[in-house]
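pls design
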């Protein structure tokens, strides 16, 4: 491992991949080096166990290995680096440029498709089926304060605001927020507000919500684990986080044409992100559409709970349901 990172470019790769999962294309734009050279360095770092590689459709992502021996090694190395070093600082600036471009691509997509967003969801089970399943998993427990991250057209606010004391929707797209506000006005919903914000830096109070939703948002984000951790930080003691997104699939056109960065999430991978954020997973429910078309998508609902308790309550058993 020491021999692998002794080469300057590979040390720079280690620093970059400690911050975000990246593709060869991302790293080429940051480091200004050719694809064969970057790929060779990544291969060496992967072979020695420092990095791991995972495939999503036609794209391969690289990240730091989560093996204990490798994690201890990389933590020790990273803690000794001078982040003010000019080369590392320039790499960090270019990394932010990559992230901004990703965000711009997603924002551009949202702006172009704001008026037809509900129609695009026809690839999966009908919204009515997904919404009924979500309501079933949430049960009759009162909702004092709801936070909907990536609220889009505001449908989740429409659905749940009547059960809430107050509801807040966050979205990065002004076009989506305009649509959400119009729909809330039309439904005469006065206890819900929407505001512009970033899923990684939520413009809300910490620990202020007993229900947080991330509905069809994670597949647009370059760091789903960080978004889940930020959402968990908004939970009050005993609060719940519901993630609704796609199961793993191979519909590459969603990435190319619709700005999806992730082609779905496996149950264990997503549950691992929830546990890493300090939450207890209480339910996983899969909703498969009717028919056997190749372009169909399975929607999964993951429900997790903050382990802190203000009041003792009956334990909620873990459920795994397929519909």
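designed seq:
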């Amino acid at each position: 491992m020491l021999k692998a990172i002794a080469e300057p470019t590979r040390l720079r790769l280690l620093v970059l991949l400690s911050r975000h999962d990246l593709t060869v294309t991302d790293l080429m734009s940051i480091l200004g080096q050719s694809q064969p050279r970057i790929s060779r360095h990544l291969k060496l770092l992967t072979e020695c166990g420092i990095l791991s590689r995972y495939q999503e459709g036609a794209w391969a992502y690289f990240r730091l290995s989560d093996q204990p021996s490798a994690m201890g090694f990389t933590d020790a190395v990273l803690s000794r680096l001078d982040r003010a070093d000019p080369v590392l600082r320039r790499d960090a600036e270019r990394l932010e440029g990559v992230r901004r471009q990703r965000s711009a691509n997603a924002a551009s997509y949202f702006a172009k498709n704001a008026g037809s967003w509900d129609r695009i969801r026809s690839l999966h089970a009908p919204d009515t089926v997904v919404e009924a399943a979500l309501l079933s998993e949430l049960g009759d427990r009162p909702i004092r304060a709801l936070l909907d991250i990536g609220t889009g057209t505001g449908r989740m606010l429409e659905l749940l605001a009547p059960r809430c004391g107050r509801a807040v929707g966050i979205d990065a797209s002004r076009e989506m927020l305009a649509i959400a506000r119009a729909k809330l006005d039309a439904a005469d919903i006065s206890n819900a507000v929407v505001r512009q914000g970033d899923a990684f830096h939520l413009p809300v109070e910490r620990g202020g919500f007993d229900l947080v939703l991330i509905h069809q948002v994670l597949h647009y984000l370059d760091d789903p684990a960080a978004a889940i951790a930020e959402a968990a930080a908004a939970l009050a003691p005993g609060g719940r986080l519901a993630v609704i997104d796609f199961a793993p699939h191979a519909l590459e056109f969603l990435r190319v044409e619709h700005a999806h960065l992730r082609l779905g999430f496996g149950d264990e991978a997503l549950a691992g992100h929830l546990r890493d954020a300090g939450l207890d997973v209480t339910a996983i429910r899969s909703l498969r559409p009717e028919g056997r078309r190749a372009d169909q998508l399975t929607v999964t609902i993951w429900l997790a709970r903050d382990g802190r308790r203000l009041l003792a309550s009956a334990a909620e058993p873990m459920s795994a349901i397929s519909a």
